[in-house]
């Protein structure tokens, strides 16, 4: 169950990071509200998952999901550049997340 909660926490990290971008420096109220709520949910679920999972594993997976998710939103929704180097970097992050999961008892 902790792994499922951790994945959901990572998805909420993508929500708040995307909303932060859309807030334009906290000048737009609704994206700012979405960002704050997303942060609270994300941090709360991360904290819950850390009751069971080791700190290093939980935090690494959480940030990795957030990083890859934000990268995907940037490319697919915001039209950011997709280069072979950026794609390779994202693949390395995913590989690291898989290895971290496999290495955790």
Automatic annotation (TrEMBL):
Pfam families: Multi_Drug_Res. This is Guanidinium exporter. It is found in: Cell membrane. GO terms for molecular function: transmembrane transporter activity. Signal peptide: none annotated. The chain crosses the membrane at residues 27-46, 58-79, 85-103. One of its GO terms (cellular component) is plasma membrane.
């Amino acid at each position: 169950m902790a792994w499922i909660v951790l994945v959901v926490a990572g998805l909420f990290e993508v929500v708040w990071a995307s909303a932060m971008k859309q807030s334009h420096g906290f000048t737009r109220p609704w994206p700012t509200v979405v960002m704050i709520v997303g942060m609270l949910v994300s941090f709360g679920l991360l904290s819950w998952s850390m009751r069971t999972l080791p700190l290093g594993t939980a935090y690494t997976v959480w940030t990795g999901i957030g990083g890859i998710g934000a990268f995907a939103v940037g490319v697919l929704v915001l039209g950011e550049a997709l280069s072979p180097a950026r794609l390779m970097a994202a693949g390395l992050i995913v590989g690291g997340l898989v290895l971290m999961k496999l290495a955790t008892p």
